[in-house]
């Protein structure tokens, strides 16, 4: 059995046995905490000489014969503690000497400042709350094994305040989004996570099975179609902030399980959604970070509204040197893409190729916040056609730091046109496109009852958090990212 443990783990288990022999419970009960480390340090003048009770994890221990210094870490940070044989008594001090880095204890003691000026708590009594049987990673900040950081996030949080701050900031970002929308009269709602038909996006779903009903269900790939049903039902301003699941690849910008917020408002269009988007993101940045100008990956982003607006056609002309106003056929579009070194399917049509050229040749230039407007109808099956250009739709995406952050439409409310779009998607699926959308009969039925003119918006929360926390990977802003099983 001993070969299962390292030498350090064996020593810790021996100490555990010793503590039990001495009559100490190694996994204690709740501890009455009166202060946090940051409180004591920040309010030293008021607390000097006072008794305080704290609970936390031992991060360092420095024994000096009949006295020991240690650093105690709680949620707010670290504080030095000082334990003396004379203060604790022989038996308790013997137990203190059996403690290891990583153990969780509760202490009560008097606040003072050492000769070196460090705020410290002189321990008068302590309680062991949880014995740590594994040593914490050494020199964690120099560790290059990021795989371990993501798999064992609890260690990442214990050993890095910077990592913890990212997730504290994430929580504040989510709260700021809710505050922004709630203050403007939007109602937060909850819609199903399991769908009979996966809809609202072009993506491959995860499939599960309900035993009682003996039917397959799909984890949602978007909240869009259910939220639009609520607009049909007369709920004019709604939003949902929650998890989305797409059975797709993993990268620095993609995780199969991610968070989005979708917002829908009756009697608006994509112009109104542009204003809402830039105002909301600017509000969140200023509320959480105190500024519209933020640092990201060695550069600076200015989120101050208004943001530049470019049509997709103009953006492609500007950054790729291709003018789709003079490309009128599918074959000409395919030829143009091949001349630019892009591989396109023989069946690809003009709108699909336009979108692919944009993704491959334009997105990398969109560092500052930019609205890209008017997407081809072929890649926008849920967006309203432009009245002056039926090949395009009232759709925009927001790009910041060369990454898509938001997607929005003037929503398609014509049930006959929506059915035709779904049927076109079904034909693509039959031809082998497993990300093409399915025909949702109930959604079309809802539209047949009448849906008012509506603007809709979706924002990827994880990418927004990446940007606002200067994080290079989506895994840095998801507490428990999806990982491949270890061998």
List strands and helices in order, with pairings:
Elements: H1 7-21, H2 37-42, H3 44-47, E1 51-64, E2 67-74, E3 77-84, H4 85-88, H5 90-96, E4 104-113, E5 119-130, H6 146-151, H7 153-159, H8 161-183, E6 187-188, E7 194-195, E8 207-210, E9 215-219, H9 224-232, E10 237-245, E11 257-266, H10 270-289, E12 293-296, E13 299-302, E14 309-311, H11 312-320, H12 330-339, H13 350-361, E15 370-373, E16 385-386, E17 389-393, E18 395-400, E19 403-410, H14 415-430, H15 441-448, E20 454-460, H16 461-468
Parallel strand pairs: 3-5, 6-10, 14-15
Antiparallel strand pairs: 1-2, 1-4, 2-3, 4-5, 7-9, 8-9, 10-11, 11-20, 12-13, 15-18, 16-17, 18-19, 19-20
What distinguishing features does this structure have?
487 residues, alpha+beta, OB fold (Dihydrolipoamide Acetyltransferase, E2P), BirA Bifunctional Protein, domain 2, 2 domains, 8-stranded mixed beta sheet, 5-stranded mixed barrel, elongated
Question: What is the number of independent domains?
Answer: 2
Query: In CATH, what is the homologous superfamily of the largest domain?
Result: Bira Bifunctional Protein, Domain 2
**Helicity, in percent?**
25-40%
Q: Number of helix segments?
A: 16
CATH class membership of the largest domain: Alpha Beta
Q: Structural class per helix/strand content?
A: alpha+beta
The count of strands amounts to 20
Strand order of the largest sheet: 6-10-11-20-19-18-15-14
So what's the overall shape?
elongated
Strand content: 25-35%
Instruction: Give the second-level CATH assignment, the architecture of the largest domain.
Output: 2-Layer Sandwich
How would a crystallographer describe the biggest sheet?
A: 8 strands, mixed
Low-confidence stretches: 140-144
């Amino acid at each position: 059995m001993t070969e299962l443990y390292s030498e350090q783990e064996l020593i810790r288990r021996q100490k555990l046995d010793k503590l039990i022999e001495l009559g100490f419970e190694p996994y204690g009960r709740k501890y009455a905490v009166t202060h946090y480390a940051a409180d004591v340090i920040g309010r030293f003048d008021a607390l000097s000489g006072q008794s305080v009770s704290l609970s936390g994890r031992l991060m360092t221990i420095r024994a000096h014969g009949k006295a020991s210094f240690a650093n105690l870490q709680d949620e707010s940070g670290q504080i030095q503690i000082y334990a003396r044989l004379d203060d604790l008594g022989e038996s308790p001090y013997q137990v203190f000497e059996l403690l290891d880095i990583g153990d969780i204890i509760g202490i009560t003691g008097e606040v003072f400042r050492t000769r070196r000026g460090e705020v410290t708590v002189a321990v008068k009594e302590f309680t062991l709350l949880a014995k740590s049987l594994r040593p914490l990673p050494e020199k964690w900040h120099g560790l290059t094994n990021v795989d371990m950081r993501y798999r064992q996030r609890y260690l990442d949080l214990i050993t890095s305040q910077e990592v913890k701050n990212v997730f504290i900031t994430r929580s504040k970002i989510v709260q700021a989004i809710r505050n922004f929308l709630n203050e403007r009269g939007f109602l937060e709602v909850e819609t199903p996570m399991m769908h009979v038909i996966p809809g609202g996006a072009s993506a491959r779903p995860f499939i599960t099975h309900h035993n009682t009903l003996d039917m397959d269900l799909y984890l949602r790939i978007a909240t869009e179609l259910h939220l639009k049903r609520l607009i049909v039902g007369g709920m004019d301003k709604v939003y949902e902030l929650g998890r989305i699941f797409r059975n797709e690849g993993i990268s620095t910008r993609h995780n199969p399980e991610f968070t989005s917020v979708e917002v829908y408002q009756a009697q608006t269009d994509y112009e109104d959604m542009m204003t809402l988007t830039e105002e909301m993101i600017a509000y969140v940045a200023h509320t959480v970070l105190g500024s519209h100008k933020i640092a990201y990956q060695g550069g600076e982003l200015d989120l101050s509204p208004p943001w530049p607006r470019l049509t997709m056609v103009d953006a492609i002309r500007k950054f790729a040197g291709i003018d789709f106003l003079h490309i009128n056929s599918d074959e000409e579009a395919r030829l143009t893409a091949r001349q630019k070194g892009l591989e396109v399917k023989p069946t690809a049509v003009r709108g699909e190729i336009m979108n692919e050229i944009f993704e491959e040749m334009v997105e990398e230039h969109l560092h500052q916040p930019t609205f890209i407007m008017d997407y081809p109808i072929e890649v926008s099956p849920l967006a309203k056609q432009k009245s002056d250009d039926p090949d395009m739709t009232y759709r925009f995406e927001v790009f910041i730091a060369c990454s898509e952050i938001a997607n929005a439409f003037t929503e398609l409310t014509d049930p006959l046109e929506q059915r035709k779009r779904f049927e076109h998607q079904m034909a693509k699926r039959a031809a082998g496109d497993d990300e093409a959308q399915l025909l949702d009969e109930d959604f079309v039925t809802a539209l047949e009852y009448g849906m008012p003119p509506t603007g809709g918006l979706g924002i990827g929360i994880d990418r927004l958090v990446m940007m606002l926390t200067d994080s290079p990977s989506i895994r840095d802003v998801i507490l428990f990212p999806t990982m491949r099983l270890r061998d």
